[in-house]
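Encode chain A's predicted structure.
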Amino acid sequence: MTVWGGPPWLGSVVLSPKSPPERESGSPDRRGPYAYPAVIETSQLPPGISLREWNAEEDSLVELTDLLHRSYAGLAEMGLRYVATYQDEETTARRIAGVECTLALLDNQMVGTVTFRPPGRSRGCPWYDHPDVASFGQFCVDPDLRRVGLGSALLDHVEARAAQSGAAEIACDTAEQATHLIEMYEARGYRFIEYADWRPMTNFRSVVLSKTLPTAR
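Encoded structure for chain A:
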């Protein structure tokens, strides 16, 4: 058995090696007070792509981990050691345990993903500890499908989920050297909040960014 603690995007859970999160036999799939549908409806997706939640009984940790490695390879080439550049399947399981993990699918293949934590479930730095701050992480798009609107659709989804959950803010973090990502978030209305340091799990100082949400209806 492994006990893991760390920043919010790593989570803290006890798991047997190579095992995805499990539910008790016959128990409902509980995703907290803000459950969302298995198939996610959106009109903003590129043609042929659909969004749905992670299914621990059917989906592959190997495939999800491979997607993360491929998607973060460019950042690794910049010398940035994001957890997603080297994590194994056990770490992937830990990172999606107890959060909402959304998959983007094309021809039943994973081409994007993002995880969402409602208010009160984020932790690891002072801003994440605020009770009205939601957060997202492990966000990626297949390198062959960038610049077609898929990343924007995934971010639209988690921002909508945050508003539905009653959050006042939605936050994320990234390497301070990844200026192209920081600029992308700033273009969506995110602003710098603070620095966070999760070394040696990474090899960089992180910037925490946050966006004020409209009042949820």
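The longest strand covers residues 109-117.
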